[in-house]
Amino acid sequence: MSFLETKTVPKAFILLSHERSGSHLVGDFLGTLAGFRMFDEVCNPDAVKPGKHAESFYKFKYDAIQKDPRLLLEPSIKLHREFVKTYFDHLHTLGRAPLFGVDVKYGHVHDFEWFWWPMLERPALFSICEENDIGIVHLYRSNVVEATVSGLIASRRKIWHSWQVKEGEATDKPVKLPPYEVVRKAKLLERQTGLFREWTAKNKRLEVTYEQVSGELGKRGHVDHAITQFVGAELKKLFQPRVQKLTRPLREAVENYEELKKVCKEAGLGAFI
Length: 273
Description:
By secondary structure, the chain is α/β, with parallel strands linked by helices. It has helices at 23-31, 57-67, 70-73, 77-95, 124-131, 144-157, 179-199, 210-216, 222-231, 250-253, 257-266; strands at 12-17, 36-41, 99-105, 135-140, 205-209. The protein is 43% helix and 11% strand. The chain has a 5-stranded parallel beta sheet, sandwiched between helices. The radius of gyration is 20 Å and the shape is globular.
């Protein structure tokens, strides 16, 4: 029997988040829990190479289409939803652990649709989670301006994680950013986060913020307790994160901070800067 068809075996979990929200930090934390296996961004071919990793969503989909071409040639909602359920079964087998989690970004949720998704309708992934007792840890950054600035600086430097920094490489030089582009992206992120909070309201979920985990995770306080209680697993060892925060406070990170501050205030984002 598929693990998705019975309530007698542990649930799977999705770590749902947007970029620059601390997902690698939370993913590392989940991976230290007893009996828990964490899979990285399975829908990101840059992070999880389809040709090398069996957990890659695209690798699994490629193999599934080879076995049953109807998935591509005669698509249907029913066939696709069965395919998605089978994919979670596949991860459960790979994980070799009672519990597992999957890192899925906002921008990857569409991969779990068949061939049609009215963009403002609730994504199919969340109804699949609801039907199969898959929990959702929804991680987001309350300060959308900081999240946007962090993303723009990371893209400019081509450095997204602390382990990518080369020895002697400077990452503290302020960067000049286009204020109106920051505002545009920050407002989009604010809208996106609101939609995902609405879409997951009926799911078995835990909401945590970047601001909470960056200051409290691993200190055996409220955040640790909330996460371990939600997933039903305890820390098996002291949590020592491999990721370090790269972006400094906005005033120090943004060369034209005063200009950005003015534009953010005019756009109603003054509380975030």
